[in-house]
Design a protein that fits this description.
heterodimer, A: mainly alpha, 2 domains, about 85% helix, about 0% strand, flat, B: mainly alpha, 4 helices
């Protein structure tokens, strides 16, 4: 049986979830702007960097209740169909990026550039994917 | 006499340079061959294990049923999310390192992060239209 206290806690949790992505984007925006300022960028350039990141998140928050897509992009899919869309989209993007990373790694290696960032990204991808298989194999 | 010695010395240099070049080429070819052999052997081993293991079957791109298809989709999704968070962290770390005056180029991380975000947004629109 759901009590009034449970309902209030549930509402608080939902509103916290709604503000989670904007809050994270706000912090990332601040860090990026601080780094821009530190690397001899003008305050104007730092402000633009902050506004791009924070503005995107704030825009999503404002559109959350009106658009299912915005709600999904904020990490709150409205129903099972949107959860399925999210999972498939993430999987498709991950597969595309894995191929892209491999191609860029090979091209950079041949070109004599620094391929380490791509190699590390591929390694992280491989570990996360294999870990994901083991985790979901155990959980599902 | 000295001309003969100089000619012998020059020939020695040429022979040494040729030996070094051949050694480097052989090492590179051997290294490439070794890597190629490792990849082929691991694929052959996985193929041999395929009928016995559902996990190996998935790793070779042939999930045995719907449960394993779901595991594959979720594992890819998890991998994508982990890499995206890692890329963001690396991007911010490189920016901060640049501030500190250490070496490090954030551009590769920014490019791959942007490509991943674009691919995700495109896929959301695609599946929204298709489902």
């Amino acid at each position: 049986m759901t009590t009034g206290k449970d309902r209030v806690m549930g509402m608080n949790r939902t509103s916290m979830c709604k503000w989670f992505v904007p809050a994270v984007a706000f912090v990332i925006g601040l860090v990026v702007a601080a780094a821009e300022l530190g690397s001899n960028a003008s305050p104007w350039q730092a402000a633009v960097a902050f506004v791009i990141v924070a503005g995107y998140a704030l825009g999503l928050r404002l559109l959350q209740s009106r658009s299912e897509t915005a709600s999904l992009l904020s990490g709150l899919p409205v129903d099972e169909r949107w959860e399925s869309i999210n999972n498939r989209a993430l999987a498709l993007a991950a597969e595309a990026i894995a191929i892209f990373l491999l191609a860029v790694f090979v091209v950079t290696e041949f070109g004599g550039g620094d391929a380490m960032p791509y190699a590390m990204s591929i390694a992280a991808f491989g570990v996360a994917y294999l870990g994901g298989i083991l985790w979901y194999r155990w959980r599902l | 006499m000295s001309e003969v010695r100089r000619a012998t010395g020059e020939r020695g240099l040429v022979v040494t340079a040729a030996k070094v070049a051949v050694t480097v080429v052989v090492m590179l070819v051997w290294h490439a061959f070794f890597l190629f052999a490792m990849i082929v052997m691991s694929l052959v081993a996985l193929r041999a294990l395929m009928p016995r293991s559902e996990t190996v079957s998935l790793l070779l791109g042939a999930p045995v049923d719907e449960r394993w298809e779901s595991i594959s989709t979720r594992a890819w999704a998890l991998g994508g999310q982990v890499v995206f968070v890692g890329l963001l962290a690396a991007l911010v770390a490189m920016q901060v390192w640049q501030v500190q005056g250490w070496s490090g180029d954030p551009t590769p991380y920014a490019l791959v992060g942007a490509a991943l975000a674009t691919a995700y947004l495109g896929a959301v629109l695609w599946y929204r239209w298709r489902q």
